[in-house]
Write a structure and sequence with these properties.
Layout: E1 2-3, E2 6-7, E3 14-16, E4 20-26, E5 36-50, E6 58-72, H1 76-90, H2 94-97, H3 103-107, E7 109-115, E8 119-124, E9 143-146, H4 168-171
Antiparallel strand pairs: 1-2, 3-4, 4-7, 5-6, 5-9, 6-7, 6-8
């Protein structure tokens, strides 16, 4: 988004339904103003594409770009629903497990909604594109170096009583792929 005439990129957690993308932050955060034009991008890198020629190197990826105007969510029920989407997108099942936000916490939280009407998705997969050209005769290795991200074992808060079990919805993610 543009804040005080300058473009600003803010890493944030997001959630979505079929119509809206939701992002949140502190009420004190100057970047989270409603009525602001925004461009939200999400990219998952799936691997490096290593060709015979540096010119042909690339990245396999999945990405989405959403353009729109950020709308400040003021309706209390939509705000709760949006925060639930955001929470369960990050950690499915966490909304039902954890304590729900208090009125004070909700008042300290800004939730923005961006319509998904103006969105584009791009995907790049596959091998390098130089396998059938003159560089194919160089005898150099070419291919894809896949990148995977997996969830590790949960690390408990040091202040947590030892007998507190890891909830099932968190424990079952260990070893699973992210993204």
């Amino acid at each position: 988004m543009v804040v005080e005439g300058r473009p600003l990129v803010v890493p944030t957690v997001y959630g979505r339904d079929e119509r809206q993308l939701y992002v949140h932050g502190s009420v004190a955060g100057r970047s989270l103003a409603g009525g602001t034009p925004v461009c939200v991008t999400v990219t998952h890198v799936d691997g490096l594409v290593l060709a015979r020629s540096v010119f042909e190197h690339g990245v396999n990826y999945r990405s989405a770009m959403i353009h729109g105007e950020a709308r400040k969510v003021t309706d209390p029920q939509e705000k709760l629903a949006g925060l639930r989407l955001l929470t369960d997108h990050a950690a499915p099942g966490q909304w039902a497990y954890a304590r729900q936000p208090s009125r004070k916490e909700l008042a300290a939280t800004t939730l923005l909604a961006v319509s998904l009407e103006e969105a584009s998705v791009k995907i790049r997969t596959g091998a390098p594109d130089d396998g059938d050209g003159p560089d194919a005769e160089l005898g150099l290795w070419a291919g894809v170096l896949p990148l995977t991200s997996t969830w590790d074992a949960p690390v408990p808060d040091p202040l947590l009583p030892q007998e507190t079990p890891v909830p099932t919805h968190i424990a079952r993610r260990e070893g699973t792929r992210h993204g």
